[in-house]
Design brief:
Elements: H1 2-71, H2 73-100, H3 104-116, H4 120-128, H5 133-142, H6 149-167, H7 171-203, H8 208-264
Helix pairs in contact: 1-2, 1-8, 2-7, 2-8, 3-4, 3-8, 4-5, 5-6, 5-8, 6-8, 7-8
Amino acid sequence: MSIIGLLTFTNFNGLKAQEATEANAEQTEAVAAANDEAAVEAEAVVENEAADAEEVTKSFHQVLKEKYIQGGAGWMTPVLLCLILGMALVIERILYLNMASTNVQKLLEGIEGYVQKGDYEGAKELCRNTRGPVASIFYQGLDRVNEGLDNVEKAVTSYGGVQMARLESNLTWIGLFIALAPSFGFLGTVVGMVQAFDDIEAAGDISPTVVAGGMKVALLTTVFGLIVAIILQIFYNYILTKIESLVGQMEDGSISFMDILVKNHK
């Protein structure tokens, strides 16, 4: 009996150990499966985030292109041309005005040094080698020193007006594009409204789906026209500020220039 009991107890313990081993194996498999599932979900989240980031990156250009098409090429193209031509003139003016900037004080000091020595040709050569409207005005004045100070003053005043006109060149065209861009937008708005009413008349219904197409054209052309006008207006005011600064330099420099000639004229 003792032997039978011992064998039974041993078999029972073996079964318990086997069941525990199987349970641990099942638990390990469940944990591994859960980890795999979590890894798959994490990878899917990363892929979705990457896709969303890519969509955000491309969304501006895509939306801009879609809105351009939806607004109608017939009305959006003139607005786009106003922006392109206007910005081309703006860039040309900004480059010209930046190159026209001169260190007036340094130029006047150089001219005064030559004039004190009576070397007017050296002063003229200095003006020739200096860019900007101020140097050109001083050159015209030095070129007429032998004709008297009255003629020098008249030359400085007259050529100053010429240089001011050159500084303001193309501003009229920029102003034209500022006015045309919203005008084309408003024209597209009117045409879009007419199209909307035509659709209502044809359908005999005033539901939103009927008028949505025409209203979209109307709103998009107006929005883009106003945006173009705002952009060009900002640069236009910046150019005017630069011109005013250069004109102030020209006026102050001309007064100082005449003072130098009067003081050293023999």
